[in-house]
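Submission sheet (multi-component)
Chains listed below:
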Amino acid sequence: LAKTTQPISMDSYEGQEVNITCSHNNIATNDYITWYQQFPSQGPRFIIQGYKTKVTNEVASLFIPADRKSSTLSLPRVSLSDTAVYYCLVGYQGGKLIFGQGTELSVKP
Amino acid sequence: EPEVTQTPSHQVTQMGQEVILRCVPISNHLYFYWYRQILGQKVEFLVSFYNNEISEKSEIFDDQFSVERPDGSNFTLKIRSTKLEDSAMYFCASSPGQISGNTIYFGEGSWLTVV
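Outcome: structure written.
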């Protein structure tokens, strides 16, 4: 399973765009990149998943360069309710997702 | 939007007691999982389950733990003889498939406190 590295914490202000970059140098050919959001005392919530280039949904965008060794989660116009921990995960075997510490995003008014 | 549901949301139990945590996975999913998160720590994989069998388990998932799909909708985690260190948030999850690209969806969790 590919190891991921992402910033431990980020600060932002309401209305700003937030970009969280994750590096995954050892990503395998078949691996997808998945991002989850977790609020305190709640389960990880799926945000977005992609394999290459760009994926967009109603919540976020995911940018993946051609070499796929990194990915960037983009949250447009964050609000206070986007304060959470964001996890980047790459691939899984047997349903075994390996969660790191994630990025603790703090959105301030 | 389909979701994984878990009961109870919070349970307090005496050390040494048995606990059963229940989950209803998303209806058309075939793979089921339990994860746990001790307060302030990472989310950890416990076990995956498919076709009425455990397909993979972690070192944490020892003989104290068992999983079962007793009927067509429920998926349970049993913890025998609970210990203080079993206090954690337990998350059930499910997915339609088990290769990368199949999204794993998590429930809201069951908070277990062992006293």
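Remark: Chain B touches chain A at residues 4, 31, 33, 35, 42-45, 48, 55-56, 58, 89, 91, 93, 95, 98-101, 103-109, 111 (CB under 8 Å).
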